[in-house]
Amino acid sequence: MTNSDPVVHVRNLRKTYGGSTVLDGVSFDIERGETFALLGPNGAGKSTTIEILEGYRDRSDGEVSVLGVDPRHGGTDWKAHLGIVLQDTGESGNVTVREQLGQFAGYYSNPRDVDEVIAAVGLQDKATTLIRRLSGGQRRRVDVALGIVGRPQLLFLDEPTTGFDPEARRSFWELIHRLKAEGTTILLTTHYLDEAAQLSDRAGVIMGGRLIDVGTLDRIGGPEARVPVVRWRDASGAHERRTDHPGAVVAELVRAGGEPEHLEVVRPSLEDVYLALVSEHEPAPQELELSR
Question: Which structural domain, as residue segments, surrounds residue 245?
Answer without folding.
Answer: 224-291
